[in-house]
């Protein structure tokens, strides 16, 4: 069930129907202000909305004022268990804190942290992780791991609600995709708060991308989830790229051009991989939202990718450029990519008008195999 409540983290709305927010986390030592800010800038450039930094010690907390001042993105301080670091982070002006309220030293400490959060207007991310469940839920977790995650999260929710504090989002992450999917589904039925999705310890780029895409994508496809972090054992910029691809694939947010490309088969007469790589590299320089198809043959290619704004289809010596479902012209193979982008640039300069497909005068002509 989609979240009802909306919170705001550093000016970014989360939940209550707001666009799904992309987060990542720096891998630098937070006390190294320059390195941390450099990574925050790279993440912002890649399209990250919020950046989280680990605050395991006093030196990291002391670096927060400079990081908050210099970061192009709202900064979330990842505290987990230490109440005094949470207080320092909030005093430094962070946009939010990630904390485990059930594990920061008892009711007095929780009250102290919540009071400061109310005074400073700081939201929190709370929630459970399959690797750090409280001891009393470990036995439960052996029979019902998703249920244990939900219960752990609900215990934290009750703790904060008793203190009349409701400015938080919740995560119930697991490294098991079926467990995290179930946990978020069940939690979404129980609380109105925004949910932060992720598959924890998903792994290196390839496996982590697959696991995160399935876990996060399944939930987003059901309308569950308000902010996402793809956890990869890789440069965090990769996490943001994958997160955006998930959102774009589901049509939830758009950013820059999309490319579709055929896998190629025995009908192709061109090196589709090479063409696709050339096109992808050039698309990376555009901010506009449009779709380009790279297809291996002129027999099936244009038809299969007819919904794309532009496309190229390979032939033996010459290929075809097409736009909005119509073949424009035959072009020498070596000129295909340049000619494609000439069309794209002219279309952008003319205002990116998309012809209404149903009212076109011509349908896609059958093009003989080149
Ligand atoms: S577009 Fe042509 S080359 Fe590409 S997979 Fe389809 S039939 Fe094969």
What would you say this structure looks like, in words?
The chain is 40% helix and 19% strand. It has 370 residues and is an alpha/beta fold. The chain has an eight-stranded parallel beta sheet with strand order 8-7-6-5-4-3-10-9. It has a five-stranded mixed beta sheet with strand order 11-12-13-14-15, with helices on one face. Strands 1-2 form a two-stranded antiparallel ribbon. The protein is elongated. Bound molecules: iron/sulfur cluster.
Order of helices and strands: EEEHEHEHEHEHHEHEHEHEHEHEEEH
CA radius of gyration is 24 Å
Low-confidence stretches: 359-370
Number of helices: 12
Strand order of the largest sheet: 8-7-6-5-4-3-10-9
Give the helix/strand class: alpha/beta
Bound molecules: iron/sulfur cluster
Largest sheet: 8 strands, parallel
Helicity range: 25-40%
According to CATH, the homologous superfamily of the largest domain is Dihydropteroate synthase-like
Proportion of residues in β-strands: 15-25%
**Outline type:** elongated
CATH architecture tag of the largest domain: Alpha-Beta Barrel
In the CATH scheme, the class of the largest domain would be Alpha Beta
Number of strands: 15
CATH topology type of the largest domain: TIM Barrel
The end-to-end distance, rounded to whole angstroms, is: 51 Å
Average residue pLDDT: 92
Total domains, how many? 2
